[in-house]
Each structure stands twice: as C-alpha cells, then as structure tokens.
Input
Amino acid sequence: MERYNVLDLFCGCGGMSWGLAKKGFNIVAGLDIWEIALKTYQYNHKNAKTLQLDVADADPIEVLKQIGQKPENIDVIIGGPPCQGFSKNTPASGRFLDDPRNQLYKAFLRFVKCIQPKVVILENVAEIYNAFDGVVRQEIVSTLEEWGYRVKVQKIDMSHYGIPQRRRRCFAHPREVRGLTMREAARIQSFSDDFHFLGSRTDQVGQIGNLKWLQRRNLQHHR
Output
C-alpha cells in the first residue's frame, strides 16, 4: 500500500493526524502556535516534525524548507482552523465575520494553492456551514473548485460513527455521579488509549476538548 504524506495545519495536539496515522498515512509535520499541544503532537507522532508558528503569517515554501519537503512530496493537507468564531458556544454578539479567527481558513487555502496536494481535508464546527449566510463555506468550495478539486461538504454527526458525542461537541456523561477522568474524556473525544497528553491538568483539558466549557467540568487526573 502506498503511504501518503500528510501536512497538518492548525494541528493542535494531533487528533486528526492520529486517525490518519492509524490507517497507514505518513504524517510529515504539524504546524500550530500552541506550544504544549505541539509537545503532545511530537510525543505521539515521533517521526513527524513540528513547527511552532502562526499559520496565518507562515510562508508555505519556507515551511517546506524547514521540514525538508518539496511541494510534490505532500499528498494530503489537513487542518481545523479555529472554530470559536463560528461556534454557537460563542454568544451571537461575539460572532462576526471579520473576527480574525474566522479568516484563518484563508491561510489554509494559501497552503493548498502553493502546494497543490492530491487531497484536502478541512474540518470545523457544523455552524460554519451556514454561518454568515454561508459565505465562508461558499468561498472555500468555489476556491477549491476553481483550482480543480472536486469538493464534498458534509455535516457529520459523530454519534452515528460510534463516537459518544454530537458535533455540538457536548460531552456525554457516565451514569455515575462523578467527574470524568482525563482518559475517559479523551475516549469520548475518540482518542485511543495509546495517545498521550503532555502538560498540566489544564493543558490536558484544553488539548482533549479544545473547549473552554470543559475547564468548568470536574475532570480528574487519570490514575
């Protein structure tokens, strides 16, 4: 089986890459501005390179030089630009199109245009589909189609795929009256038990869920 090379943008701790790696993809590098998440990424993806930088300002060619790759060697670009500006977890008064976080998909597209991978996977919250009258979704689709990609957009309810959560990213809770351990929370987010999180308790909570509401839950250390 041919191993496809993957570049992960806005990689966080590497959950999406983890799934692809489990299916035989070769994870080349992860890019993010979040230091502790990158340490977790490197720990779990030992053969990948990590670059701590602001993807919005990054030069794709310079990035490729730093990770020792050429554009033609990158088969797949994946990424999940920050979702907070689209999510319903942010009050309506705090959601606006010009939010800098809502413009980061353009940095993702800039990498795609420069590198021209075979496959592109961009993930975000379901609300991006209709957010701001759908202009963001429409721009992503039309831009990729203009570059020759066949684009399929889907809103996926992860509970239909054996994951105990909904795309609104609300955690399910066990019937016992207690808080979730870190490992239980990670399982709910579909991280396998051999994926390890680094950093403090707060760092781990942020990486597992990447949601502020999690930090208010009674999550306990996994023993």
